[in-house]
Predict the 3D structure of the following.
Amino acid sequence: MANLIANSDPHLNPLDYDNLSARDMVQVDSLITAGSEYIERYCNRVFASAVITDEVHNGYGFNSMFVRNPPITTLTQIEIISAYSSTGSDTYDTHEATKFLYDEQTGEINWKPGIWFGDTTGGVFPKGFQNVMATYTGGYSSVPEAVQLLCAEFVIEMYDSTLSSDGIDKEKLGDYFYSRSKDYFENVKVFKKKRILDSYRLRKI
């Protein structure tokens, strides 16, 4: 997994990273990784574009399936187990990308109409356990701005909550002090703005 933002990201300017102590730099770097892991785990996806080789899926007898890391840039091939072997040397049928249509954004792959694969009405992904493998290029060429911003907000608030006005319940200028609303820390833990992430969240299949 790659971090969603770098420690030089402009969204982290309030931290003045370059002037932090070595110890604090390590802390910020750790928070970037933690925030990135949380977001990707919540969204059930990896954001950075990568070549995904032999991504394993169960076949359900339908003519469509969803990959786990959209958007799809390029579909390379689909492999389907045609015969199992007790020695582990299963037999695969390899199907080139020209046999399929796919939705780049949702990651749905469909057999083209008229393609025969065990069903005269068209191709299907036959029922089976981990019997379908997809090879494709998926993910974003650059992490969406909203996702970068939320990751940066998490890092800033967890490193030094005084740098963020979010969740301030009381504030005073003379003999300055502030207090957080009672649900602030819980909101940080679960990303209060995670509803923004819902538009990037993938269903688990």
Notes: The chain has four helices and nine strands.
